[in-house]
Amino acid sequence: MLTLTLTLAAALATAANDQDAKAVDAGAVAGAVWTPLFNGKNLDGLYTFLQKHGRNADPDGVITIEDGTIHLYKNAEDKSQVVMGYIGTDKEYGDYHLRLQYRWGQKKFEPRYKLKRDAGLYYHVTGPDAVWPRGLQYQIEQTNVGDLITLFGMQLDTTIDPKTADFVMPKYPAYQAPKDGGQPHVLGGKGIAYQAHVAGSVENDEWNTVEVIARGTEIVHILNGKVVNQGTNVRFLDPEKPDAQPVPLTRGRILLEIEAAEMWFRNVEIRPLEAK
Q1: Which residue has the higher pLDDT, 20 or 158?
Q2: How many Å apart are CA 223 and CA 24, to the nearest integer?
């Protein structure tokens, strides 16, 4: 009986992964190839923005390019005080499938030394450079990878597990697909709002693969092949113009967040999707 149960569980898991794989490929442009956003050698096509230093200044050596990877805080002493920021694309992107890999290092730093290792992938960033900027974020924080964050006027429609609807910080409403009983929910609109990833964790201790599908005003977060968050009708509500109508948002800059934890990024690449 135990063997039969395990076999059935494996079959169900395989079916679920197949569905996730189909979701990844939905809308891909025929013949489209993956294009590196990070070429593995330098930051051509990218810029840096760090606290205290601004654009394209890294006197502390926060960013090291080595062996085809971006190594963050390689030269910083464990527990030391560091600056935070991000690496961003010069161009804006829309209607794409983005993927990258990350792996944690051992060191952590102030001002987040006592907190979980943290980073992130920002996208649909359209405002001025700031720590932190206006846009959407795929959270890359230990145990919370795949969480969806809206910042400073960004808003979208989604569905959540009704059992989590009343959660407040430090817990947050969690994504649940409609087919699994998820109920409608509006995320964001002002300040910073969080939505936890679907129940369960698929992060591992080595290299993890993060993917974002952004097609029209729809977005999907995928971690190691599993859909962990989704949103639709992405829009911007200008906090300085409360009477203005929301503006659909389908594109923006893409940023790799640098947030006081040693880590590596590699294989950062993108391919176009058919417009929706």
Answers
A1: 158
A2: 11
Element (H, E) at 20: helix 2-25
Asked if 234 contacts 154 with a C-beta cutoff of 8 angstroms, the reply is yes
Residues 6+ apart with CB under 8 A from 31: none
236: exposed, middle or buried (C-beta count within 10 Å: 0-12, 13-18, 19+)?
buried
Which residue, among 121, 127, 133, has the nearest Cα to 256 in the 3D structure? 121
Longest Cα separation, the chain: 63
Distance CA 31, CA 263 (A): 33
Asked whether the predicted pLDDT for residue 40 surpasses 50, the reply is: yes
What's phi and psi for 164, nearest 5 deg?
-105, 5
pLDDT, average across residues 162-175 = 89
Q: Is 226 left (phi over 0), alpha (psi -120 to 50) or beta?
A: beta
Three-class SS state of 2: helix
